[in-house]
């Protein structure tokens, strides 16, 4: 089975996306995957400065938590990004992290499948489209990788609210179990 890396990007206490990510992780483990998770809570991740030194060295000149995360991303078979949706887009800290993964572009990265789990207060079918498209833009830069799937759970707002939503918890578990 695969080595799966789940990256939780919400900084909120009792985050609904984190709760759903835990159900996804349970499903992935039950499917036989080795799962590691990273939360961006408490991490220091600076903005990319666009120097492109990393394209020659595969190393970022900035020294913060993004460097270690990039190494874990590089060595995972499968990636799962978990994000709340703010203003119909992935959260800012997720986008900042994706920008900082630039050293991987010219590296011998292992990941082939990328997934997204997202939540939002809004519940329209179109709510996650821009967030998913943003991740597709990143994935498209890695010719050996594909966006293999996305799960959106909408209509969830208050901290911890998803704990009483059995359908969404089950969906996240099933989504995790189906990860390749």
Topology, element by element:
Blueprint: E1 3-8, H1 16-30, E2 34-39, H2 54-57, H3 65-74, E3 78-86, E4 89-90, H4 92-100, E5 113-120, H5 129-139, E6 146-154, H6 166-177
Parallel strand pairs: 1-2, 1-3, 3-5, 5-6
Antiparallel strand pairs: 3-4
Protein model, in words:
With 180 residues, the protein is of the alpha/beta class. The chain has one domain (3-177): Rossmann fold, CATH 3.40.50. Helices cover 34% and strands 22% of the residues. The chain has 6 helices and 6 strands, in the order E-H-E-H-H-E-E-H-E-H-E-H. The chain has helices at 16-30, 54-57, 65-74, 92-100, 129-139, 166-177; strands at 3-8, 34-39, 78-86, 89-90, 113-120, 146-154. Strands 1, 2, 3, 4, 5 and 6 form a 6-stranded mixed beta sheet that branches. Helix 1 links the parallel strand 1 (3-8) and strand 2 (34-39). Helix 1 packs across helix 6. The chain is globular. It starts with a strand and ends with a helix.
């Amino acid at each position: 089975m695969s080595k799966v890396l789940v990256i939780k990007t919400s900084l909120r206490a009792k985050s609904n996306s984190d709760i759903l990510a835990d159900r996804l992780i349970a499903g992935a483990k039950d499917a036989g995957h080795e799962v590691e998770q990273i939360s961006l809570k408490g991490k220091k991740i600076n903005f990319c400065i666009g120097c492109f030194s990393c394209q020659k060295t595969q190393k970022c000149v900035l020294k913060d938590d993004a460097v270690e995360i990039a190494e874990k991303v590089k060595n995972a078979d499968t990636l799962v990004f978990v994000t709340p949706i703010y203003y119909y887009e992935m959260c800012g800290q997720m986008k900042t992290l994706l920008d900082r993964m630039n050293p991987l572009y010219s590296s011998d990265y292992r990941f082939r499948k990328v997934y997204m789990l997202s939540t939002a207060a809004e519940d329209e079918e179109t709510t996650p489209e821009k967030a998913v498209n943003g991740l597709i833009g990143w994935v498209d830069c890695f010719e050996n990788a594909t966006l293999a799937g996305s799960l959106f759970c909408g209509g969830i707002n208050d901290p911890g609210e998803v704990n009483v939503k059995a359908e969404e918890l089950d969906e996240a578990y099933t989504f995790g179990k189906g990860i390749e």
